[in-house]
Amino acid sequence: MDGRRVVVTGERFAQGMTFHDYVTSVGTPENLEREAGWWLGPQRHDFSGLLRERYDHVGRTEAQAGAIRWLAAQPNGPTRMLVISEEWSSDCRRDVPMLARLAEAGGLELRIFPRDGRRLGRGPRADPAASPNADLVNELPCSSHPSSRCGRRPRWTRSSPRFMSSSWSARPLAEREQTTS
After folding, report:
1. Among 13, 94, 159, 174, which lies 20 to 30 A Cα-Cα from 49?
2. Which uninterrupted H or E stretch holds 164?
3. What whole-number distance in Å separates Cα of residue 147 and Cα of residue 140?
4. Rounded to the nearest 10 degrees, how much is the dihedral formed by the CA atoms of 166, 154, 139, 90?
5. Strand (E) positions, 34-98?
């Protein structure tokens, strides 16, 4: 070992779902009974068809595929990709199919873990009694969870692709500037 702390063992990583297993799990009665995020209300929706469609039609350039292959080929380059996701999140519905395609292009082993348990996590840290994956959510150094040790969340600027993305807001940019100024 080179002194880096191992947060996720190979055995723990293997407990995650492949992309196709994750998509299948999204539409199961067990998943649909779980509490959802705030945006769509507490009732979960079956997004498995949408995830499959996005995976089938995701636009990945040869440059992106080449970059991930190059990265994986580097000494000590990545061999695995771990994703923490909840399908009620529009970010996850948008990004996870692309991450699956990038993992495939780079020959990376992808595993997906749900963030929450039966109820939506609301505290500053994931509750181990409520979330079967609290260990991952609380320990990964750059988790999107509020307890993340990556420092402050980024502030989106006008030059940020996220700020300008159509998923950020359906309102025209000029209207957003008036209401956010």
Report:
1. 13
2. helix 161-164
3. 10
4. -10
5. 80-85
Instruction: Assess if residue 44 is contained within a domain.
Output: yes
Q: Which residue is associated with the tokens 């350039």?
A: 61
Number of domains into which the chain is organized:
1
- Which tokens hold the place of 175? 């209207």
* Per-residue pLDDT tens over the stretch 21-76: 999 999 999 999 988 877 777 789 999 999 999 999 988 889 999 999 999 999 99
Residue matched to tokens 């636009």: 59
Our CA angle for 10, 24, 11, nearest 5°, is 10
Residue 27 gets which letter from DSSP? T
Residue 28's domain comprises 10-180
- Is residue 5 included in any domain, yes or no? no
pTM of the model: 0.73
- 151 backbone φψ class: left, alpha, beta (φ>0; ψ -120 to 50): left
Please report, for residues 45, 47, 150, the alpha-carbon distance to residue 32 in angstroms, rounded to integers and kept in the order given. 7, 10, 32
| Residue 3, in any domain of the structure | no
Which tokens is 74 given? 């580097």
